[in-house]
Amino acid sequence: MNVSKRQFLGGAAALCLSPLAPGWARLANAATAADTNWPTRPVRIIVPYPPGGSSDIIARILAPRLADALKQTVVVENKPGANGNLGAGLVVQSAAEGHTVLLCDVGALAISPSVYTKLSFDPSKDLRAVSMLAYSPHVLAVHPDVPAKTVQELVELSKQQRLNFAVTAIGSAPHLAAVAVQQATGAQWEYVPYKGGSQAVTDTIGGQTQVIMNGLLATLPHIKAGKLRPIAISKGERMQLVPDIPTISEQGVKGFESGTWQGVMAPITTTDPVAERLAMLMAQIVNQPDVKAQLNEQGAEIVTRNPAELTQFFNSERARWAKVVQSADIRLD
């Protein structure tokens, strides 16, 4: 994972709409030749989490600009439940429409088949990749009253007193990242599941939970406001945006990386021209200077990938997290 992710991030700037990138050049030609009758009705962007999370933030930045490009209404609908699987299932069921897409944490979607024993769909078979949009590392943070200021201090504190650890949902990407840290350090915190990152953040700010692992994009405003204190970020190297926050890797968990990967998926019946046109438009939008600056300032890096590249990423994430799920024995009906 570490090698592939570094390659993924390192090549992002060169690949984003570069005329030298064969995949995007072919996509540009395909997008130009796309069915000019599409879309014929409003386009729905389903966010399978509550408002206020990383995917929701990006969807609401994207929607009005996509509407301008398509000359059609674009609406964002939050359909939370079952760790994002409820919303994903609704998109799968909308296969006959061709006007509904899913904007989610692609890594979390890749985890679901390993965690859920009775998943009503197979994302690898029922959904097709459209475009990767952005990456935001996870941030490990605590309520300001928690005395620990480093990963090691937090681990030691967890052995001395009960620490409630807020997770967006059992089996979510932040949960599995926390489990991986726990396995590597011997921490003994207690997981408290939520239905989304926004409520998990709210309760940690309120002191109902003491520790949280969440996407930096949705968490940084609360860190800047002093409502949460950062312990570490889950990136291979420190971020220029928050240079004072050390990485988990440099605090003893060598090579550790995780994060939220916002991307767009569509029903498997979506045609190539439509998927490729959407991929091009979305990549162009998130690379607009004002959009890019807005997301960067909030802790997200623009990382665009075409459908083929996103499919490859999804498959590698599915294989990677299946091993963590198996070792932690995390299974849900």
UniProtKB/TrEMBL annotation:
A Pfam family assignment: TctC
Cited InterPro entries: BUG (IPR005064), Bug_dom1 (IPR042100), TAT_signal (IPR006311)
Lineage top rank: taxon: Bacteria
Keywords in alphabetical order: Receptor, Signal
Signal peptide location: 1-30
Family recorded in the similarity comment: Belongs to the UPF0065 (bug) family.
Name of protein: Tripartite-type tricarboxylate transporter receptor subunit TctC
